[in-house]
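Hi team,

As requested, here is the filled-out complex form for the S-adenosylmethionine run. I kept the field names the same as last time so the parser does not choke. Let me know if anything looks off before we queue the next batch.

— J.
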Amino acid sequence: MALRSAGSGKVSRGPVHHPLFARFYARMSVNAETRMGMGGIRDRLLSGLSGRVIEIGAGNGLNFTHYPSAVSEVVAIEPERLLRRLAVESALRAEVPVDVVPGTAEALPVKSEAFDAVVLSLVLCSVRDVPRALGEVRRVLRPGGAVRFFEHGRGGGRAMLLTQRALDRTVWPLVSGGCHVSRDPVAALREAGFELGPCRRVMMPENGPVLPSSYCVLGTAWRPTEERPV
Ligand SMILES: C[S@@+](CC[C@H](N)C(=O)[O-])C[C@H]1O[C@@H](n2cnc3c(N)ncnc32)[C@H](O)[C@@H]1O
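And here is what came back:
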């Protein structure tokens, strides 16, 4: 259950404030649904989910219409004000109940072990503190619960990795709302104590130019049923 709900009263400037990027993403992401096949990726990301789900960094809410009807509730965390407003509109079009809530991955405003699944889509690249965010994912997920992820990260050969690292130290986070291209989401999940399930490498766009942000991974991880120290 969310401890705060969106849309009530005045919202102050939040910890994630990227108004220009938010405007750009709101347009680009809608085009990518069809032109880059993101709609199909979202279907695969969310297929088979059921019960209570928390989606972290929900953006403008493009996942919402892809949730299967077995999902009883989605709590969608989004820190950026413009994207959150668009997510509230998307929630109205969803077939499952979606509650859009302000907050960050590093301090999720929800109770522990309250969710059957966590959805991460194109967000670990942007959070400020990946280990802390994944610690929160682990806290809010019930033992045995699933993390469904679609994330981009490091990939390609040595030249591409050097390029990705150079971009991360310079312009990329500045122009892309804090995004990084050289992170390794699968390794980060493993280091955070999750059990890795099936993972598939995906290039995005699939048939277009290869960009530093093209190297994606679509997969599932689980919170172990028996706790081990991380
Ligand atoms: C590239 S967008 C992806 C949006 C959406 N998940 C999707 O699949 O289209 C990255 C999102 O992460 C959000 N974000 C950035 N920093 C965050 C943080 N610390 N905690 C949670 N979300 C964050 C951004 O506001 C933005 O909505």
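Two things worth flagging: The pocket of S-adenosylmethionine is lined by residues 16, 25, 29, 56-59, 62-63, 77-80, 83, 104-106, 121-123, 126-128, 177-178 (CB under 6 Å). The beta strands are 51-56, 71-77, 98-101, 115-121, 141-152, 195-203, 215-222.

Thanks,
J.
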